[in-house]
Structures are given as C-alpha cells and as structure tokens.
User: Fold Guanidino acid hydrolase, mitochondrial from Balaenoptera musculus.
Amino acid sequence: MLRLLASGCARGLGGGGGARGLAPGGRARPAAGLCDPGGSRSRQASDAPRNQPPSSEFVARSVGICSMMRLPVQASPEGLDAAFIGVPLDIGTSNRPGARFGPRRIREESVLLRPANPSTGALPFQSLMVADLGDVNVNLYNLQDSCRLIREAYQKIVAAGCIPLTLGGDHTITYPILQAMAEKHGPVGLVHVDAHMDTADTALGEKLYHGTPFRRCVDEGLLDCKRVVQIGIRGSSMTLDTYRYSRSQGFLVVLAEDCWMKSLVPLMGKVRQQMGVRPIYISFDIDGLDPAYAPGTGTPEIAGLTPSQALEIIRGCQGLNVVGCDLVEVSPPYDPSGNTALVAANLLFEMLCVLPKVTVV
Assistant:
C-alpha cells in the first residue's frame, strides 16, 4: 500500500508523467531539500522540475502532511524563490486571542487550492520554486524575544533570496519581518489592508503589541512613508482625529466607507503609480474583511471589505516589486466552520500569483 501511495504522489507532484517523483529505472527519488543534500543546487537550473501541489486526481486531499497547499516541507530557504512560513504568535493581541492557531488552520484549508489561477492567468508553480518552511519557533512567554526570533528567522530567509509569504499570527509579527526586509531592501512601500491603522504608540505602557507595528516601523525608518497605503480602515475610535498620525506621515488612508459598493480596480491603478518600481510589502489583516465573511478574528469591525474587493487589491499589485507578504489575525476558535481560514488560504495563493517572475498567460 505504501508503494502505491508513493506512486500516486509521484504522479500528482510531477504533473508530467511522474518524472518528478521517480529516478531512472523506476527508483523513488529522495525529496529535494528534505533528504537530498544536492536538492537545493539542482533547483537552481531553470529547466529543473519545480515543486507542485499534488493533484486530487491522483492523491486524495485528506492524504499527506499538513503543509501549505500540500507542498514539500523543508528546513532551509536555500534554492527557493518563495516560501510559506507560519508565525504562530498571539501574545500581542488586545482583545480575542487564538491567532497562534492561524497558521495550522490556514494550512488545513489550503488543501482545496489548485496550482493555476484561471482568473489572472498566473502559473506560479511553473515559474517559481516554492515550499513550506514550517513555523518560526516563537517564545509565547516573551513578546520582545519572539520579535527577535522572528527577525532572525526572516533575515536568513531574505538573505537566501527567498520571498516570504507569512501565515500569522497577530499583526505584531509584521514589525520584526519588516526589520529584516528593510535590512536588505532599505525602506519599503506598504500595501496594508486592515480595519485598523495599527499606528498606536502605547497601550498599558507597552510600545509593542498588535496595535503598534507600523508606528514602530516609522520610528525605525523601515517604511518609505510616501509609498504606504492603508485600505479598509473603519470602526469606532477614542477620538475624531484617529487618522491624523498616518496622514501626517504621508500615508494614503482609504476608509472602508469609501470602498462600499464599488470596484477597487481604479484605486489600485493609483496605488501602482504611487508604488513605482521600488520594493513593496503586502500586509493583509483578515479583519479588513467584513466579519460576515471572516468572523474568525480577534478584533472584528462591521461594514468591511468583501472578498472580491480583497482579490482586486491583491491582483492590483501585479507588476509591482513585491518582496514579501503576510496574512495575519486569523483566530480559528471564533470560526469553527473554517471559512475564515479558507479565505486566508486563497488570499495567500493570490499573493503568490502576483510575485515578480510569475508566468502569466
């Protein structure tokens, strides 16, 4: 039975008659990057076979290790063009916890994803070598130390030339990720989708939690502030001038009510002009969506964006110099149906599809 399963996996991963999974003579190939010491080097060749999510035509969706899109799991970013990484941290939350379980549930729901994007013509797995790098080993008892661990992990990923696509985790994690990004790319532009601006200075005397990441990024010069857009902002506030800080820094703040009942394609045309050719980062808080579509989150706000508008925003980043992405604040305990994580998995796939060098037909 194991031999039959291995054969089926080889067909599903190969997408071309099983060459991906079998060596000459029918011997099973070792999984590149997992147990093949030469795997990373072999993947550098442009004509080398790339990782493919297995087809449900050959491998049942309930079969296999729970990785993002059932991709191979490897410990090193070497040889990868892009990778999914989990950051299961939620000790920076101010309301409902549970985002530490987000990466695992997003991976579970990603089993439904397929490798091609007919709506955009993107074929990411024909263009890029992609894998799942597992999770950052965060310290759930120390937020500062967790940020250090995240920053160090992403420094290694970015140094290897691998574009990270992050499964959060609360929004605190974006701060150490952007520290690593700016170390390589300099200040980056930012497309930030959220119900909240996350530019508070302190809470309960603490300067680091999920409401402060972009304030800390501004303080440290990690952002190119004239190339920052925040979309979907809404909700009650302590004051009537809640947008003052972001706008004073040069951010473009797009309120949710300015998005109601309309396509965001024209907005994204303006955003592309604003971002230019320099590096940008996409940070998508799932609470940017209306809780009717994504109830599984810690700080929901009514009257948010729709999933179709989320697609317009991400697809509107096609052609930009995207150097990293994250999808944060999925809290599975508040959505037993799994729909929030399913939306998140789809949005991460869409982010993969807009990365530079992805083939579009």
Q: What stands out?
A: DSSP finds eleven helices and ten strands in the chain.
